Amino acid sequence: MDISFGEASMESLSLQSEREMEKSNGKGLLGQLKKVVLAYSGGLDTSVIVPWLRENYGCEVVCFTADVGQGMKELKGLEKKAIASGASKLVVKDLREEFVKDFIFPCLRAGAIYERKYLLGTSMARPVIAKAMVDVANEVGADAVSHGCTGKGNDQVRFELAFFALNPNLKVVAPWREWDITGRQDAIQYAKDHNIPIPVTKESIYSRDANLWHLSHEGDVLEDPANEPKKEMYMISTDPEDAPNQPEYVEIGIVGGVPVSVNGQVLSPPSLLAKVNEIGGKHGIGRIDMVENRLVGMKSRGVYETPGGTILFAATRELESLTLDRETIQVKDSLALKYAELVYAGRWFDPLRESMDAFMEKITETTTGSVTLKLYKGSVHVAGRRSLYSLYREDISSFENGQIYNQADAAGFIRLYGLPTRVRAMLH
């Protein structure tokens, strides 16, 4: 969806923005750019960044918003906010299908989990947003892109590495690394000084990031790792204590390591994820509290709600126990750690990740079947798994049948396998 504004709307631009442009005479205080595409959310920071870019770089600002499943509430009123802040145009793109199909599902297939817990919700969203921003920059003839990430976080790296990979000729403007604004009060004052309307909604005490895959929480009491999260903080999952007293069974159909159906119903990637989010959230599934190592070197504490992702990870892992042999599982698990590290570090478009993705796709060709999971008060337990490509043979594993596997053969295997142990013992 491309939302642009006519002459009447352009006349509604605030007078102070015109004065800023006249003052700079087409050249900003920090340099000169023709047109900048700004990653825009409509919050305080990005509302202030629009006039700041015009004032300091003498440029036209095109705002860009990606729909990655954060909800209609987050998208409401963006057109009005963008134009009132001084933007010439707002572009909104629905990236939900691409996000799930081309970013989430490859990570799921790879088994990528960062530092034992984090299912990479924010990490996967940034490259798909950055890719769309580069596309918009090319479409509108922009010579620069801009974001509102701070100089302390991971997202600045994720955005900018994607920009470098997809269009190295684009200049990157990161206001938080350049301006004199040091916090929320400075930003509010800047907005007042420039007659920029700012959001009047009550400020959340938490810093949150939402998309189809997860909802993250940082800040307030979470800044002390000793504090337990407040019950009212959670937004998309029921407290396990308040979850239904009866378990629910859910069947996930998988083809080539990628989920395709829920309880026998084939769904599109975003619809499937929304469905398992709803089911998992009801049972308090997918709450993760962790202290992680940020790419920039500091530790941070975050709480994540990933109900659907937790269910899908459990399902794919259990199906692989049938379809992958021991050596393949071990190699896959070792590469999954590196895969997760690359995604977390913003190296989505790195040739190494792309090569590893080809490997993951190849070895999971036979990871096709279904897994039934039992959900109960925050826990996920496997209830059953089946696959036409299963390497499990009941006629071999059964204690009752000895026609294929001769137990007497184990004696020679053990003697050979244990030879190094016997040799070491003989030395002593």
Automatic annotation (TrEMBL):
Q: In which pathway does it act?
A: Amino-acid biosynthesis; L-arginine biosynthesis; L-arginine from L-ornithine and carbamoyl phosphate: step 2/3
Highest taxon of the source? Answer: Eukaryota
* Pfam families registered for this protein in UniProt: Arginosuc_syn_C, Arginosuc_synth
Q: What class of enzyme is it?
A: ligase
Which InterPro entries does the UniProt entry name for this protein?
Arginosuc_syn_C, Arginosuc_syn_N, Arginosuc_synth, Arginosuc_synth_CS, Arginosuc_synth_type_1_subfam, AS_cat/multimer_dom_body, Rossmann-like_a/b/a_fold
Q: Supply the Gene3D superfamilies for this chain.
A: Argininosuccinate synthetase, chain A, domain 2, HUPs, Single helix bin
- All copies of domain Arginosuccinate synthase-like N-terminal, residue ranges: 35-197
From which residue to which does any coiled coil extend?
A: none
For the keyword DNA repair, the answer is no
Which keywords annotate this record?
Answer: Amino-acid biosynthesis, Arginine biosynthesis, ATP-binding, Ligase, Nucleotide-binding
Enumerate the spans annotated as Arginosuccinate synthase C-terminal domain. 206-423
UniProt-listed Enzyme Commission number(s): 6.3.4.5
Question: NCBIfam families per the record?
Answer: argG, PRK00509.1
Q: What is this protein called?
A: argininosuccinate synthase
